[in-house]
Design brief:
The protein has 319 residues and is of the alpha/beta class. It contains 14 helices and eight strands. The chain has helices at 2-9, 39-49, 63-67, 74-83, 88-105, 109-115, 124-151, 153-156, 166-170, 182-186, 191-202, 240-245, 268-275, 305-315, and strands at 17-18, 159-160, 175-177, 207-210, 234-235, 278-279, 290-293, 296-299. Helix 1 (2-9) runs parallel beside helix 14 (305-315), helix 4 crosses helix 7 and helix 6 (109-115) runs antiparallel to helix 7 (124-151). The two termini are 19 Å apart. The model has no long low-confidence stretch (mean pLDDT 93).
Length: 319
């Protein structure tokens, strides 16, 4: 939704297209409130977690740290402390110390603040209210996105890629594949996607994708030299490490009959590496990371949504 809104706001004409013209639907997991925290809260937390170690490679954050332990409340707690008269420096010190303990000991942020006497003048209920507030805002944003998607005509009645001629495909200035697990199922080996990628790549039009969207690239054909057209390109996508932290992860199981319903059947990072890309991921998981190599633009994870959209706009000279 974020790239779509940025493209429209920039004045682009956006067509929604699926391989067979059937309406797409949002990956339910992508509508979880944890993926819709307000930007200001995410940015503040990032500034806190960067204090955990001198070298970013020593800061390993999992999705549990960012979602289940309540660390996202750091900004709200900081401002609550400021309202009680603490200086910015003192308030930030308490928040940073509590977050570090939370990260190191796998404890809940609210519990650490209270039990370690790092809440200052705030009561336990006031600290909990800060966490409740950000979760409420996240739920509201998730609901807004779901409503907005349902109201966009293109998502209700998309164009049918299989009915497009080569000339029609060539008329497009760029293509963008969003994230969600869907691309791994219906784009990675689709003949119509193969046609589209071949046509746009020949005219060096921007080919962009986000998170699981780069699965689309696996459908690309070989070039005149017999090599896959994206062989040797620098590419990013959701990483194996990030995938294993998500709810539908494809963790190894002894008995395939015991694999959880909806589990991802293969790893996108591994598939892209095996296909021949130079995989380029961020130094820390769940951080924004975008890779541009010639006409190929890829974003690593949901936190890369804005940056990858801006990269597309720059490639089209509209930003």
């Amino acid at each position: 939704m974020t790239p779509y809104e940025r493209f429209v706001a920039a004045g682009l004409d956006v067509d929604v297209v699926t391989p067979d013209g059937r309406p797409p639907y949002a990956d339910p997991y992508g509508l979880d409130p944890i993926f819709h925290y307000p930007d200001e809260d995410e940015d503040f937390l990032a500034s806190v977690t960067r204090t955990f170690a001198h070298d970013v490679d020593d800061i390993r954050l999992t999705l549990r740290h960012l979602t289940e332990l309540g660390m996202i409340a750091a900004r709200r707690v900081f401002f609550a402390l400021r309202e009680e008269g603490l200086t910015a420096s003192d308030a930030r010190d308490l928040v940073d110390r509590a977050a570090r303990i939370c990260w190191e000991q796998d404890r809940e942020f609210v519990e650490v603040l209270v039990s370690e006497n790092l809440a200052g003048p705030l009561s336990a209920s006031r600290v909990q209210a800060a966490l409740d507030a950000v979760n409420l805002d996240s739920r509201a944003e998730s609901d807004r996105v779901a409503r907005a998607l349902s109201e966009i005509e293109g998502f209700r009645a998309p164009l049918d890629l299989s009915r497009m001629s080569v000339e029609q495909m060539a008329a497009y200035d760029a293509v963008f594949a969003p994230g969600g697990h869907g691309p791994m199922v219906d784009l990675a080996d689709d003949d119509q996607v193969q046609r589209l990628l071949a046509v746009l790549h020949e005219k060096t039009a921007p080919i962009a994708s986000l998170c699981h969207g780069p699965a689309m690239l696996l459908a690309a054909p070989a070039g005149t030299d017999g090599q896959w057209i994206f062989d040797g390109y620098r590419v990013t996508s959701i990483t194996n490490e990030e995938e294993y932290q998500t709810e539908p992860a494809a963790r190894p199981v002894a008995d395939e009959s015991q694999r959880p319903t909806g589990a991802v059947p293969w790893q996108l990072e591994s598939a892209l590496r095996n296909a021949g890309v130079v995989f380029d991921d961020a130094r820390a998981p769940w951080t924004s990371h975008v890779v541009v190599d010639r006409n190929l633009i890829t974003g690593q994870n949901p936190n890369s949504s804005e940056a990858v959209a801006d990269a597309v706009l720059k490639s089209l000279d509209v930003l």
